[in-house]
# Entry
Amino acid sequence: MAYIDICKPDGSRGIGSAFHVGNNVFVTARHVVENNEILEIKITEPIGISAEEYFRDVLKLENPDERAEQHKKAWGAERTTLMSHWLEPLKIIEGPKYHDHPDVDVAVFRVEKTHANVGAIKLGVHFDDWVYRGNWQLSDAIVLGYPPIPLTNSPALIAARAEINAFVVPRHAPFIHFILSATPRGGFSGGVAIHEDGDALGVITSSFLDGDLPEQIGFFAVLSIEAIIHCLAINDLYPDFQRQHHKKILGIDPLPWIAIGKKETN
# Structure
């Protein structure tokens, strides 16, 4: 997970979220980045790195292997220790790119590099036609994002439990959106909802509400997987990590199917 610090055309600041799907590719919500200046993208949670790497690349000490060996002995020779390391901000080298349907709230981009120990979230295979065949209501999900916390100095990753209340196809976008029981808050947009089976349920979009009511009065909406995979594929950013994951589950290469789906949405 990473936060996206943005400046809007009127000069006001905002924040959104993004999640890594492999090969340095991130998914976010379209409305977070479109027509906005991206000031910073940063992973907030530390990663674990070896003692050798920590002494060599972070502290830049001489004889890092020797220092690491001394460190291991201090903790017990049988124990392999990982050092917590906070990463520098990420730099976009490709994108943001969008779904070809202008009202589908998803965007993708590639960053220059991420550490090899940065995890990737597996996208589910619940394509829209398949959602209707399953029982989703009241199954569990976890939502992750960066809604601002008052009186704090920096963004913090927020996790919240939720239940799936319904799934709908809204008038403005021809893809399934899940309605979750969590409270909509600015900053969750672009984050991920992870289903109880362990794969991503979808990307968190703007809340569904009527008129100019406060965001928290609306419904917490999550754009399902099919539109995300379309967006990745048509922009040549579909990570091989995800392709192999989907191929293993489906038993077929999903790319030809995605191409057919793209034509049907145009």
In short: The radius of gyration is 20 Å.
